[in-house]
Design a protein that fits this description.
The protein has 168 residues and is α+β, with helices and mostly antiparallel strands. It is 21% helix and 36% strand. The N terminus is likely disordered.
């Protein structure tokens, strides 16, 4: 595997290992139930530095991402400024204001959080690279929902569905 931070891992994996996606059926209620009650910890300087080495292992499924078969849409506000790592990813931890998988909306009476992992080569990444994503600003997003086995915790990997929501 050639190491480079500019490819979309889900697209590459679908082509190389389609069995990883076969038979994965979305369970909206079960997936929504896994939303975090607290934000994930900020990435340390070491986490951001070593990502160029560790992310290829995630692509291979070693301490990686597990498919849920779900796609979500939502809105929220970052709990801290977006963090950029040596693998090219932007990491954004959000307090959710809205979250739905299909017609199933999350109950957000109690705070719920999700991590966005924004990969190079996507429209979402272009937006993050050209605008500072700051704590408290409004974001709207959509994308595949995966479980990061580091936690485990839920992540959304936005591709085209990502925008900064103007205040007002």
């Amino acid at each position: 595997m050639r190491l480079r931070p500019a490819h979309y891992w889900r697209r590459q994996t679908r082509q190389r290992r389609p069995e990883r996606f076969a038979g994965v059926v979305c369970d909206p209620d079960g997936t929504i139930a896994k939303l975090s009650a607290a934000p994930q910890a900020a990435l340390s300087w070491f986490d951001r530095f070593i990502a160029l080495v560790t992310t290829p292992f995630k692509f291979l499924g070693i301490e990686g991402w597990e498919e849920t078969g779900c796609r979500a849409e939502g809105q929220g506000r970052p709990v801290r400024h977006a963090q950029h790592s040596t693998d090219g990813f932007w990491t954004i931890d959000l307090r959710l204001e809205a979250f739905a998988i299909g017609a199933t909306a999350a109950e957000l009476a109690a705070p719920r959080y999700i991590r966005l992992e924004v990969e190079p080569g996507t429209k979402a990444h272009e937006i993050c690279a050209s605008h500072r994503v700051l704590e408290g600003m409004g974001l709207a997003f959509g994308g595949a929902v995966v479980v990061d086995s580091d936690g485990p915790f839920l992540e959304v990997h936005p591709e085209d569905e990502f925008q900064i929501v103007p205040s007002g």
